[in-house]
Amino acid sequence: MSSTTGTRGESVTPANPAFDTVAETTDVTALLERGRALSAPVLRAAVDRLAQPMDTVAAYHFGWIDADGRPADGDGGKAVRPALALLSAEAAGAPAEAGIPGAVAVELVHNFSLLHDDLMDGDEQRRHRDTVWKVHGPAQAILVGDALFALANEILLELGTVEAGRAARRLTTATRKLIDGQAQDISYEHRERVTVEECLEMEGNKTGALLACAVSIGAVLGGADDRTADTLESYGYHLGLAFQAVDDLLGIWGDPGSTGKQTWSDLRQRKKSLPVVAALAAGGPASERLGDLLSADAKSSDFDSFSEEEFAARAALIEEAGGREWTAQEARRQHAVALGALHAVDMPERVRAQLTALADFVVVRKR
């Protein structure tokens, strides 16, 4: 498989592409569209259960309407998780449709976390639009997030099957880990130093846990045993770490036109993301200078008024200290571990190739 251009021209070559020939012919866009198309009607029906004005606020968040309530065709996100849930069902030998409740439940939890994260982080833009808290206020962002989480469990448990109960337990565990990760992320913003191990643990909770759930929940609903589901979870967990490593690169060097966020977004929020943590741990003049600057930033009363040049200088030091390259390599390493987990699951080769192609997509995306 040839190298693919990643963040701002950086070459990201997927490691250990075990099923290159078939995976290269897989249309990832079609997989994502299938996940979106099959889950969307059930997702909309779930949101329609909410009381006013929560249903309207949720519809705005998902991009179905604009801020004035008019129908819109907004960016509803990449739909990676629904695509994984449907493939998960097929990996267990069940029809893709068996995974739809799981796809919707995971998507609801994911968006619950986005609504709360945007408020906690003070993000004013998501998917090139004002965030919910900016348009409808903090109270509605909290309430609608809570409601989406409740709906996720309702969608699963109303199936009334043993498999649904197993799926709900996995989703609940993943949600608790996701919340743990968000709490760790916030606490790290107020610490001068965070170890690489702590950062990876936080990102495994914040991102890996829900992707792991997405790629096992369909299999559980399709009747898979725990060993199969656990192995698929391992694929999803490491894919989540690769996904987050790329996200961390985009959070500093991503093009705002693609990401929908401000330039140097993570630096503005003092996030201890992987490039920052790796750069601080590297040692050397650039690492020491970066540490001095970030320590001063934490005590600065005018941090919010920093210029573009000041954030650019910090990004340059992170790169000089090796934080950018280390994070790109970590994305490739986690990608390889994720693909390795697929070897332990007996599944149709078509499904294996599709899971491989989705993993490749995660490490070369630009948003």
TrEMBL record:
Residues 1-20 are annotated as: Disordered. Coiled coil: none annotated. Gene3D superfamilies: Farnesyl Diphosphate Synthase. GO terms for molecular function: metal ion binding; prenyltransferase activity. It holds the Pfam family polyprenyl_synt. One of its GO terms (biological process) is isoprenoid biosynthetic process. Residues 1-14 have a biased composition (Polar residues). Signal peptide: none annotated. PROSITE patterns: POLYPRENYL_SYNTHASE_1. Keywords: Magnesium, Metal-binding, Transferase. The keyword Transferase applies. PANTHER family: (2E,6E)-FARNESYL DIPHOSPHATE SYNTHASE, GERANYLGERANYL PYROPHOSPHATE SYNTHASE. Belongs to the FPP/GGPP synthase family. This is Polyprenyl synthetase family protein. The lineage of its organism: Bacteria, Bacillati, Actinomycetota, Actinomycetes, Kitasatosporales.
